[in-house]
Protein 1
Amino acid sequence: MARKKSDPFAQLSWNDLQRWAGSTIVGRGKSYQRQKLVSHLARLDNGGLIAWVDGTHRYATQVTIDEDGLPESVCTCPYEYDCKHGVAVVLEYLEQVKQKKKVPLAAGDDERLKLFDDERWDEGDDEFDEDDEDEDEEDEESTLTPKEKTDIAAFLKNKTKAQLGELIVELAGKFPGLAQELTDRQQLSSGDTKTLVNRLRNDIRKISSEPGWQDYWNHDGYTPDYSAIRKQFERLLEAGHQDQLLSLGAELIDLGIQQVEQSDDDGDTAMEIEDCVPILVRALEASSLSGVDKLAWAVDTVLKDDYDILNAFEDYLERKHAQADWSHLADRLLKRLKQAKSSNGPNDYHWKYARDRLIDWIIYALDQAGRENEVIPLCEAEVSKTGNYIRLVQYLISDKKHEDAERWIQEGIKKTENTEPGIASRLRNSLKEIRSSQKDWAAVAMMQAEEFVRYPSTESYAECQKATKKTKTWPAVRESLLLYLEKGQLPWQHKKWPLGKSSQFKPDKLSAKTFPMLNKLIDIAIKEKQPDRVLFWYDQSLKNNRNWISIGDDRIAVAIEEHAPERAVAIWQTIAEGLINQTKPSAYEQAVRYLRKAEKIMKRCKKLTEWKNYLNDLRNRHVRKKRLIEILDLSDSKPIIG
């Protein structure tokens, strides 16, 4: 679109803003502008804009238009470039233009321009991601500007030691946080940390007592803030109190895991706790514990973790430690395994999971201790308790004990076929691995075909093709597999089947399947880039009232967009409207992405008028969904104030 040279800002669309800053930052900038946080807006001689934008602090923000007609901004906030403050300035300017208000020209000595002469703007090495951390959430220690630091230093320079002491005591009386900071430092320097440790323990209990939560619909929520705890942990460690820190860390881990378990905040609480863990690992390394006790502490900690928040301890265990310490640890863990409580029954999956994790660490310790010969006997002894045939078979295969491995594979398949088919499938894969090592390619191809019949998918189809390379039988195998998906006839019953009879497959496993398997046929047609077949099977699904398009799945539309563009547009519309009917902002955002794909095709087909009519109808049908209308407006390519 051609832009007016006199005012390039007036030609900006919501699409332009999103291309510039991204939808998240545009949304934040819009919120800032609506809250009237932009003030003293002015134009610059170069055609740009400058303004103050208020947040936790007041920031100077400057915006210009680049050679591509898109904005670019620089700001005194930590993010510095192309931030929400820049978006807010642009939107405030457009609002004033819309209301026909005159925006004054900035004075040549405007104080805000001087802020951008600071040498930090030439360095550009402090990157900051606004999507990961809001720039208003600054570290308390970095809130002073360079000028404020200089002024304070000059003020203090003229004070005597006694005057400085009186001033600090006076300020501590007025500011409890400062008083606490000074008290903590005194205790750390004196070595008397009992009060500090007790207070930290109480703080941990208080912070961990409330689960984190987020209400994304209302932009509300709570995430526990462990930053002060981390800061005190660092201080304890630096002062050499690592043993006390480990005691606190054990409590934080136990309470933190409980808190994560109860939280509903997309992992925000987990990340807060996870950020404390590296400090505890350093404390463990520096502690007075013996080598084996350190390993045991780390293993015990890892075994508590079902949420992947204590991975730093796994990293510690993967480092080099004394072989003797690993051997002592293996003996301890074996003793614990022997004394562990028995299962409550064959379906006690939690017991099996916990026992298996312990066994995994015993095996790791045995390996590190040079006692590998004990691993297979341990796995054999445990398989009847936990049913972990896969682990046993993997160790047997790696030890080239194929005959023993096959015996356990057959027993494992028999035990798990009906109750845990996924395990049976993995055991069959292990058998294929053995057959491959024996170069029995026909058996490998036959086993893969059987697996395709059990679990038809594009992945197992591709594995069949791969497995037949050595036997050069793919064309006949392919025809038989597709016929099976269409009519349910077992591939090895087809007259052109080249691999012999099946010895493993049980026909009764097909009883729950319905043919033709339209979704699988469509998947394979997509994989083989046959848009006519994709459309054929898709139409068959519509005729049989088996429209299998799921919300968010547009593979059919993508596959046929060149072959049948109007049909692709219709599919994208169906997906988008299904998302809109979910009535939540995140679904609206997804819907708009599919509508953009459809718009691109309609534009290519020169049917933009028809498309605009559709969008207007969509707006009218959902006029009460204000957030949807807002998001649709944001995706519009017409000028914001056009």
Note: The two ends are 13 Å apart (CA to CA).
Protein 2
Amino acid sequence: ASSPFFVNTQLRDWAGPAPRRAGVSSFGIGGTNAHLILEEPPAIEAGDPGRSWQILTLSAKTQTALDAATQRLAAHLSQHPDLNLADVAYTLQVGRQPFSYRRALVCSDRDDALRTLTADSSDRVLSGQVSYSDRPVAFLFPGQGAQYVDMGRALYDDEPVFREAVDRCCELLTPHLHPEGTRDLRTFLYPTDEARAEATEQLTQTQLTQPALFVIEYALAQLWQSWGVKPAAMIGHSIGEYVAATLAGVFSLEDALKLVATRGRLMQSVPHGSMLSVALPASGIAPLLLPAISVAAINGPSLCVVAGPDAAIEQFEQSLAERNIETRRLHTSHAFHSAMMEPIVEEFTAQVAQVTLRPPTSRFISNVSGTWITEAEATDPRYWGHQLRQPVNFAAGLETLFAEPDQALLEVGPGRTLSTFARQHPAKRQQSIFQSLRHPQERISDAVFLSLTVARLWLVGVEIDWAAMNSEQRRLRVPLPTYPFERQRYWIDAPGVQRSTAPAPIQNALESEPVIEKPVFALHGRPAGAPEYVEPRNAIEGHVAGIWQELLGVDQIGIHDNFFEMGGHSLMATQMVARLQDVFPVDLPLSALFEVSTLAELGELIETLLIEKIEALPEDEAQQLVESMFG
């Protein structure tokens, strides 16, 4: 009793000076004795807060196991309010083996994750089934017209790799944009509120537009590669080909920036011109062209761009309107890839001859030929002079890419122009197509948009280096629910033992699913990475979905689908609005498609407009109007 030792007979706090230590003895039966002194570990510091939006990844070997894993994660988050969501995301990303059935959730905090995981549906919960891993990716770099003020602003603020690439490019560009070195491109890319109007106007000027696009696309490519997404192939549209060539090692970054600035300045120096997108194939538009107009781009089998002097383009636009051919003016300051570029071809070729051109170390497609660029072309200054004058043969380039059916296509730049061309191309097979940055009219932050794209790439089998993606933060592994094994009984029952043979609830649900009749026109499946399909809930959504199906050729249009992400483009949007107004007698502006992003939001807008119209009519006229629409 007088010694400091006692037998602990009940649970009690271990008081004493830190750190606490304990001796553990093991006495072996054969006489081997071991003694270890253990010391408590240091206190674990909390992880960093992490990004404003997190990607929670779940996968399993069956759909039912994936659903069970989702439910278990939701329950765990509910029971542990103190969890750091960034650590939860990190643990799921690097601490779980990926299987073929996958689900990804993009959320802002624990409460948002709980709400979204337990909701009936959400456009931030994505699911897919992967048939193979390590899917190759092709990078698509857009050209002039895709730019806008603040493109990638959130990435510049929050992603060090992106910011460092933008800063380096802008510092290298400064002496080429202004002899006194006083013109920093970042003041136009990310202006103050007071300077926004001037920056918006300046970014339409070719001498700034082309360097700005190059910088953003190059920085995005560096960010994607730092996350493990490296291109197996590349294609650029006009100035976008310079980004591809730089990543392939044809130009050094310094030389590429100098040439891009020179190219923009020389193009700015020629007389003003216009460009017009026309819904016709190249063969169909050729007989209609005026002498001063050139075909500047072939973006699809039935989508071309023509360019020329302002007066000639205006006259040509009017003549096409008389033939009921759809057209759209492009937001450019000059007639690129037309005869108006002839005066600068020789001077630009001489500028290219002053830099070192190296054979490409990775594959990219030529705008001129529409197929893989050769070593001779890439290292010939005359090719790069030729490239600014000849039409951009983008449709042929896409056909070359689509000959490799396993790859995913990723637009690495602002907007969705090239993604739209790709989705509408007839050579497209099972390729999945994604964008990096939002369209300027989309009401979503860059951070959410990019996170959704990362999730969609992972859902189709693209390998993401999650550890590298989190390398700028201090992340911790935390305890989370383990895999929900679906145990089955294989023992043979003893004679006389009877067991229930009723099917599982999920089987009953599958067997009782209604058969949905398909429309008479040909449809293809939903694109990979699309939001989970949720069928229309009312007559208005049903009418809208039917029109989208016929125009887009996509089966199962759901309420969370986005018209442009499903393959729509601006010319098709005009047709769609006209069709909607045939069904619903409301004044629906074309701009509404850019302001309401999903079918559900569009249906809600139409419903609001209809109610306003019906309430303004006498009762009998209102009743007649409703019956004419819905029967």
Note: The chain is about 40% helix and 10% strand.
Protein 3
Amino acid sequence: MRRLLLAAALLAASPALAQDIRIGARATPTLDPHFLFLDSNRAYHQHLYGRLVERDGDGRYIPGLAESWRTVDPLRWRFTLRRDVTFHNGTAFTADDVVFSFARVPAIPGNPAPYTYYLTSITGVEKVDDHTVDIVTSRPNPLVPIQTNGISIVSRAATEGKTPGDFATGVAAIGTGPYRFVEYRSGERLVLERFDSFRGQPPHWRRVEFRILANNAARTAALLAGDVDLIDNVSPVDADRLGGNSAVAVHRSPSARIIYLGATISLGQSPLTTDANGQPLATNPLADVRVRRALSLAINRSAIVERVLGGYGETSSQLAVVGMNGFVADRQPDPFAPEESAKLLREAGWGQGFRTTLTCPNDRYVGDAATCQGLGQMLARIGIHAAVETAPASIYFSRLRTPGNELPLFLLGVGNDTGDTIGTLIGVIHGYDRERRMGSINRSGFADAEVDGLIQQAVVELDMARRSALMEQAMRLATERYAVIPLYQPMVIFASRTGLNYLPNRDEQTLAMRAVPAGGRP
């Protein structure tokens, strides 16, 4: 109690919030907006870069760097660009920057998680004049404006010939966003300053400092000590504790993310998967849908939500949340049925079990490491002995390749903040198809001709009711065939000083633009 009172006194004694904000953030940023697709990276990029089409606070798509768009013919969208936009270095924004940015996305070598699924069906971006571009597609695609929201526009003059590392120094981190780059120290801090020539609504804060604090306890301690004004990814345990502190405000929102267990189907022989005695296997047990279903039935999802998330979440039946287009309403989460799970393993010829590896991040999702430890224990009860390995996100995601992922079992999350399942279906469920730019984050290697066909139809379907039905059918089949194993939908939790109001969103993004002094609205 004495410690809490001291923390409250420190917060109360801190200077009133004015022009600067300090944010304790868990994720280390990658400042190249076309390298390593992660929602946490996308959040950092929102500060620095603009997109042709933006989204408002309610998730609606609105004009961004493009003031308008229309179809010229079924295979061509025309975007009229704003003329009043400048980059942070003072140069004018033109069509050349758009053409360059779209072309750069698939061209970065060694990108472990590219942004190419935002280019689905897009075959080229052509300059019409300095303030007009055409996006050309291989087939009619009503989603092109939405897809452009995933491609940040960089300065061609500042970026051409540069590597992702050049963004970390600030040399190439030149955008049109509300903030400009000031300083970055990897694993320590990112400092941004308000861009006074920003074309949109000026942000409230003059200076933003993200302090990278990967440890949950460190972020909480920094808030209580008055070293930061806002923290993200608050753990459920800390949320309950902070909620009782009068100097702290806790901000909650359901997330649109689904955390899932991936089982790599495409692996052949793997040194990471052996029989129960440690001998090599001629076949991959995870390629059998009965084995993947057995994994699912061995998992007590409710126990994970209650014990790891402290009740701040919901069990999941699919890679979608209620209310989304394509959500399968009559699908329920698999029950905890270890007896049926063991029976399925016997039917599949794995009654003696096997050994494998479960690899997870330990600083990316709420309770990720604890979830993995729990999963390892649950699978061991049916004879699947999975050695649990955890690593920081920066290391973990570099090991998850598409195609060719070599991790047998892995924990991941997928966001669904657009209100539509098509992005998840294209990126995570569709088989890897470099030409179509589909399956770019399909780490399991799942490939099903029937499911792929439904997704391809949904992408080009103009009738919204028919399109939703196609997405729902694809999601149903992918779930029944265990493309992945859905686990739970967490809650996004932030905490701040009481003098600050923060509006969390289901996209989980940590944005300085969503924070304002108490009484205001972002």
Note: Residues 1-17 have pLDDT under 50 and may be disordered.
Protein 4
Amino acid sequence: MPFDSFVAAAVAEELRRELVEGTVGKIHQPEPLLAILHLRAGRRNHRLLLSSDARCARVCLSDTSPPNPPTPPQFCRVLRKHLEGARLASVEAAPLDRVLTLRFTRSDGERTLIAEVMGKHSNLVLLDDQGVILDAMKAIGHRVNRYRELLPGRPYLPPPAPDRPSPLGLGQEEIALRLSQQDDFPSARALLQAFSGLGGFAAEAVLAGAPSPTPEGVARSLHAYLGRLERLEFGPHVFLGAEGLACDCWAFSSGAIAPEAQREAAGMSAALEEAARTEGSRSDLALSRQQVMGRLRAALARVNRRLELLGKDLKKAERAEEYRVAGELLMAHQGQVPKGANIAELPNYYTGTLEPLRVTLDPALDARGNAEAYFRKYRKACDGGPVLERQRQEAQEAGEALELLLMCLEEAAPEELPGLLLQAEALVPTPPPQPTTTGRAKPAAGEATPKVKQHTSVDGWEILRGETKEGNDYLTTRLSSPDDLWLHVRGAASAHVVVRTHKRPEAVPRTTLLEAARVAAAHSEAKHSSVVAVDYTLRKYVRKPRGSAPGQVVYQNEKTLHVEPGGLPERG
């Protein structure tokens, strides 16, 4: 949306006609880069919108009333202090420039509000009657701009003047002469290099309006536009996109746009607001696309990680026969296996040569106990194989659907986005909001925060683990919420583990619960055991007895899982 020098001049003329001699009432700053001044002028109420947002920076009259933050920003408070009750004395647009100056009068002197509408460099600056900056919407220090600082207490310096001449005041012959000296004439670039104060949109309109593609013809077209500017004979137009929505606007009609793709607007402000609404919708859609694509990529990464874990589990399931043979041999040769051994070599009578089979043992168990452990692995592998295969197939299908949707979103046209975003929302719902603080005390100033590690399950749920006794204490009594799931190894010292549930404990998948249990088992005294019992309950059922040591708690209403120890990737 080009807010160029022609549009700035048209806006200034409209504001002079509608607002001068008006009184400032309320002032709001609904967004960090958007201010709205309410003025009473000509027995009517008006809203003056001033935006420094690079996406659609503008100054115009507006009918919109965005919601305001509960606490006004600092710049809004300064505007209220100095402009509420003031009278708008004048509105000026710098000649062929994008700087608007609004002068206000009040009993204690004059105040000046300067709107620099210059794309990403747009800003709003309030000055006192001596030209000293009272505040700026975007504070610009010496490190950002060595030429001028836009900070309270500094004298205001206007933006640096361009090194090219302005075409204002030049005759057609002089304009034509300068154009003929440009190597790439006729082109919009030649116009922009020859003169200051023109934007790309204006240059295209000037070229399209030229009676001939010669320096004299283009000079005649430019001179005509400058004449209308000096006489304030504006004709604001809105330009329509493929979907029939306003995609742009300008202070005049343009020969560079097809007649059916433009229409006259009620005023420059009306044209700017209509184009800004479309631009805002497109920006929101583009932002939604990026956010959804990020969620899809994260979901795809989780699916790939799940496929990797399922692949490992399937390899274990394929060893079912090995587990059965090891168990049978241990039962048959119990007397040959010394207690506390790590490895046993047993004659394998399942082969014709009786070649010894090397069997890994748990030194804490006797031969019979190790045999039973191998039989449990055998039954688990037999029972879990079909389930794991089905889960892997489902994960592969989910991954393919995510990859296809990602590809479609990357290549989608604007009109296709809403439908694709709905598909993405169905496939990867918006994550639940972060839980509010529990009201528990935080570490005092200067006190080190106890160490807590963060994990992410294959289903995308957050898992927290205390690293020390103090970390366990901090996690359980301060960091977690009552509806979070809390886990601890039964009958042994272990890390406290919490699954963040966002007040939806029933929605936590069993796979995430099992992963959290494996984390607890892997960080416990029982981490070398083949199977570990892990209790879990809601954190509200966990209580720390008065006077107990850090990390010591009692709990109730628990259930128990039996898992093999194993951790998850950590992230801080």
Note: Residues 483 and 506 are 10 Å apart (CA to CA).
